[in-house]
Amino acid sequence: MSLLSVSALLAALVAAPIPAHAEPAHASSTQAEANEESAITDTVLQVGADESSRKLSWMSENSGGGEVRWAKTSELNGSALPDDAESAETTESGLSTDLKRHFNHASMTELEPNTEYSYQVGSEKDGFSDVAQFDTGVAGDDSEFLVFGDPQIGAGGQPDDATGWDRTLNSALETGQDPRFFYSLGDQVNSAGDQGQYEQYLAPEATRTVPQATTIGNHDVASKSYEQHFNRPNVSGDHGGSGAITSGGDYWFIDSGVLFININSNDANTDEHAEFIDEVVAEHGDQARWTVLGFHHSIYSTATHNDDLEVKRLREAIPPVAARNDIDLVVSGHDHIYNRTFLMDAEGKKVASSDAGFEQQKEEGQTMYLTLTSSSGSKFYDYVPGLDWEAKSVHNDVPAFTRVRVSDESLRATTYEVPAEGGTQAASEAIDDVEISRQSDEEPSPDH
């Protein structure tokens, strides 16, 4: 890892998070309205611990006094939030790593299902952001989420990368049917502390209207900027290797009866990750109909990173943990190529009955691994043929995303490419489709 600048170190030390109370309250009628002079930037809507909450992050010019305000859209006064809108103060805030702004984290709680909400963030000093809307959707029925690999804004030239990311995200949202959230698998930016690259990643309107979850990539980890921009739920202080000037932390959440576990694969302590996964599944596994594990460094890619030392260590450590916790699907990025494995066992070997076809019936302890390619087109890696785990690999050097549809009976992952020549609203083209179901006739009965 390269040495960090003195200014980045100073920023990390000065920007120690400032905890604040965050109990919902009624907003004051004297609070500032959103206006053109608002000093709020980089607002991000994110998943909460479950469907009844959403987390937020934003940047402000001034410190202190930050809050989120929200209400049902049906209760708006024209385009403005009502005087009795709910509000919650920031849970943490501090000086950003560029020493120019302040980061803010807050949460919206006690949200009702199948309801459209409106919200804004800000303070008396900075003004408030424009009112934005999101829909909580219907949890627990058939649902879906979107998955993206390595936007890595800045790796291929910021304007083109940002345009590609915006095009792929918009195409995915057009393709999906009211996705509950989208999941970015790391390397959101190319340079960990580059605020301009974060601004480009967060530029699409969907980052404020569709919740997202993120993973820490190797290009994100070397700065506190990742932790400042993303307010993740249930982050462990003991697992995932957050440092004084680096981002980290394993975390989990439940959405629509799916348990999502995310680990920071930049942290080489695989025993800690295993302990985290074991503990989360033991405590929350009975609430889920499916379990999905996400981390950045793909252990079963078909490009050149598959032979890296840190990837080999993960490839030895993850399969037995996935098997004993009956992880159904693992999603990763890092290698800028698309690959789907066969169903794999606890030893990291192909299940004999598994093939490259659409229907894959799994027994307990069997797991499928997906590697997602670049979602922006910033760069791609060369294909490595002949690997034992490859069921389907696509290496067309075209940005792509995966749409995962969830039901009690199956997880269906359909992957689409988004050609650059399609413009800002490019139509997606399916390149792979797989459905995972359970061999047992016994259906899960999650408590959700």
TrEMBL record:
Pfam family, one: Metallophos
Domain Purple acid phosphatase N-terminal: 44-136
Record-given protein name: Calcineurin-like phosphoesterase
Assigned keywords, A-Z: Signal
Disordered: annotated segments: 415-448
Signal peptide: 1-22
Top-level taxon of origin: Bacteria
Keyword DNA repair assigned: no
